[in-house]
Amino acid sequence: MTTDGTDIWRPYEDHPVLTPLMTGGHRATPPDELARLRRYLAAVVADRSCPVHTAVAFNAAYFGFEIGGEGYGNGPFDPDDFPVLTLGDEVTTHPVGALVRIETGSDPLYAEIVYKEGRHPAIEESGEVPAWVSGAPATAWGPREQRAETCVRRELLVPDLTAFGPALQLDETKLTRLRARGKWLNEDGHVVVAARYSTPQEAALDDTAAFVEHLLTHQREALLSPLVPVSVAHLTGGRDEERLRTALTGLMDVIAYALRTTESLRGWGPYVLTRERVGAGLRQDGPLGGSDLHDLVGSLERAAVPGARRRHGLSGSRTVYTATAPWLRGVAGAGPLLTGTEYAVSVCRANLAVTDFLRGDTDNGVCEGSDVRITLDDSFENGAIWRSHHPGSEETDDSDPLVPMGRGWRDTVNPPAPRPAGPPPSNVPREEESADTPPADTPLTDEEEVGLRNYLRIDDSELCWQQPLCLAHLMEDRVPLNRMVRDALVSLGPETGRVRLEIHHASVMIDPSEEVQEVTLDLTEESGMLRDVQWPIDFFPGLRLWLQWPRGGTVLRLSTRELEEPVDIDGRLITHEYDPQVLTRDGAPGSTRDGDSSAGLDTRRLVLRAVRRFGLLTPDGHALLDRDALPRGIHAAPTAPHQVTAVERAVEELLAERHLYPAAGSRGADGEPHHPARDGEPRIPLVGYAPRPVAVPRPGPGGNGLSQGTGFEYAVHGFLRRLPAGREPSDTQRAAYRAHCRHAGKADGWELPRGYTFVTPHLRRR
After folding, report:
1. Reduced to 3 states, what is the DSSP secondary structure of residue 132?
2. Contacts by residues 409-418 (CB-CB < 8 Å, ≥ 24 positions apart)
3. What SS3 class is residue 262?
């Protein structure tokens, strides 16, 4: 490695490029770690023959992809641990990023699935797309026809047969023979399958969520192998399902962020190519060069222009759906550019050409002159389906034209109401105004059920207990009593009166008037209450309170405790112990000690508020909400269609930026969602919020939280390092590796693989 900031990670030689902090997402990742990851991934993208999907980039960083043609082939892990892709009438679905063996009856094909798209049988070779196909769920069998019990989708998979290096790939003669037979690969070197999904919800998962599920199930043995550069079990410090899922989601977020913020790369959805490669393809004059892709854009515009003109202009509205892949196959001489991994490159480059046109030459997708609005409608089927509509200026949908909305299927199932000619009467509000519904502001009613409450000590002299401070307590200047305290106080005298409250806020000076207060004791309620409390300004919803009542007295004491290490949660520094459930529920957007309202919040913050306020809570503060219930949690019914669209768009953005994460649950017979999913109940997609605390170093001698001179220390987990030829690891390294394997839960194969040593965990300085 070099030390000038230009080093490129070398698997099994340098310390791992994935780090424990990355499991918390890109916001928790230090800039130098992120920069090192960016440099490596940019080199991988430049080295690969295919567009690099986020899942493929994860594989490179996790399984140790080596630049220069070796790929994964030099790693010590066993490729036979990867799942088998067995072809037949139906096969279990495989996501992009799956590392597979394709059984051929003789030599297996070791491959990485680097691209995937739908191949709907209703789409003609000419490229004609029935409207209902665009955005249709996997259960759709025709216009308005679904079969929930049968969830099979025809898909094309593009395998990269060079991913495991020259030692594990077939020679060109054998590959040509396999393509000619058409049994395992088609003539283009692709695999077309009938992909079987266990549930419609599984089929609806986005690429990242589907890949995480694949890693945790079909590829679990390879995922948890101690033979990878660094196992997720070590990165996250455990092997339980939820911890692994959260860590993998965090790592995927970091990798996606690194790819989309690298200047030398361009992205089409989750796929990236180098800018140089995209530009070179557009500059060339041959098939699928700049001229052909300009024709593609022109054909999308012309497709919706009515052929006949009437007296007062163009004839009525027209909508046409065009698939990218069939259009490319219709270009003369394009055949060689649509085989192997080059097919995926051509599709991504074509869609980027349309993207550039829409971004630079249209007004929200509306082409000046022709009044045709071009929008992406389906990003999965046949390379992508573009929707062309005339007259585009009359569409009220102001969504991003590059966010796939599935209008083809949606408008087939629920046809839009015909728009009357001419402007609406002045005394009738426009459709979007009359249909708008205000945000729903359901008050919090579960303060007694949320958060940890427990006894600390009960004896003859005093009773102590612990409880979280809730938003309602701050807003209403009160704090509930423990019921045992209330019952004891009732026996001593009147139900109301004045008592003294003493407050101690650990390591924080508070106003003397707040430190000792005269408050109202109210025993008329079931649990009892202290009212008229003046809460210190630093107190926040979720703060843990320790309360003490000396038996028989009229004094109560309340105190807080410092965290051993402060944390940052969503940009807020927290220095005292807190309850994660209450922090999630009562710290949602729009909730402050001065008020609790969704008024003025944009759609993104309304979504976050709904998930945190109405979601199922886990002990560590995660909130999970039925995705289909989001509009109802945000707006009072009925909800306007454009509001539902805005919510879905906000959810996709929040998922992409990892403010939310996808999850799976189930729905019970009573209609209530459950997480984790329960056996025998139908699966449903959930969206979740996680607090994700990031440790913040306390100020050191220099006052800035960092050690002086060389920066601060951080831990590097143990990892395998390749040895020079003729070298052997020491007995100490062999013993350390066996301990490493035990921690990862590996039940066999305790010895170091030949040619490798083990670098024990150690500290490094930034």
Report:
1. helix
2. 409/131, 409/132, 409/133, 409/134, 409/135, 409/136, 409/137, 409/140, 410/135, 411/131, 412/131, 412/132, 412/143, 412/144, 413/132, 413/144
3. coil
Segment among 309-323, 496-510, 684-698 with least mean pLDDT: 309-323
Which pLDDT score, from 0 to 100, does residue 457 have? 66
Q: Is the pLDDT of residue 54 over 90?
A: yes
Q: What is the CA radius of gyration of the chain?
A: 30
pTM over 0.85: no
| pLDDT tens track for 155-169 | 999 999 999 998 888
3-class DSSP state of 727: coil
SS3 of residue 211 by DSSP: helix
Tell which phi-psi region holds residue 647, choosing left (phi > 0), alpha (psi between -120 and 50) or beta. Answer: alpha
- Can you tell me whether residue 272 is helix, strand or coil? strand
The two three-digit tokens of residue 176, written as one number: 């040509």
Question: 3-class SS at 646?
Answer: helix
- The pair of three-digit structure tokens given for residue 198, joined into one six-digit string: 């266990």
**Helix 275-283 and helix 290-303: axis angle, to 10°?**
80
> What is the SS3 assignment for 679-709?
CCCCEEEEEEECCCCEECCCCCCCCCCCCCC
pLDDT at 713: 46
DSSP 578: B
Q: What is the 3-state secondary structure (H, E, C) of 54-101?
A: HHHHHHHHHHCCECCCCECCCCCCCHHHCCEECCCCCEECCCCCCEEE
